Amino acid sequence: MENDQTIITNGTHSTLETRTSEAEQAVVQSLTEPGAYVCNWSGHLIRAAPDAFGPNLHALSLVAHGRLSFTKICNDPYVSLTRARMLAANADLHVSF
User: Fold this and answer.
1) For residue 11, what are the CA distances in angstroms to 6, 16, 19, 55, 79?
2) Plot region of 92 (φ>0 → left; ψ -120 to 50 → alpha; else → beta)
3) CA atoms in the 13 A half-sphere facing the CB of 11
4) pTM, to two decimals
5) What is the DSSP letter of 93?
6) Cα distance between residue 4 and residue 90, in whole Å
7) How far apart are CA 24 and CA 64, in angstroms?
8) Residues 9-23: b if buried by 16+ CB within 10 A, e if exposed
9) pLDDT in tens, 82-91
10) Where are the domains of the chain?
11) HEC states along 55-70?
């Protein structure tokens, strides 16, 4: 779990807001379990189904110059788009789906 603190200024008053997110960031090569993920570089949704994993299977292979990371937003790869957008917003992620 991740905590972010943001100072919000409204006129002459400032408050410290703490946001707690269940989202976990990781690099693409570490995708090892089913779920719904948001690509941090593009905002696209990745649905990693349970049948994509096995001893000799690689669920996802992306090649790029630089680090590609994603954020897991849900354990359910079939989460509705509305709920996925809400979960991504709770984690302050840009979405493109």
Assistant:
1) 16, 14, 22, 57, 40
2) left
3) 1
4) 0.66
5) -
6) 11
7) 21
8) eeeeeeeeeeeebeb
9) 999 999 999 9
10) 22-90
11) CCCCCCCCCCCCCCEE
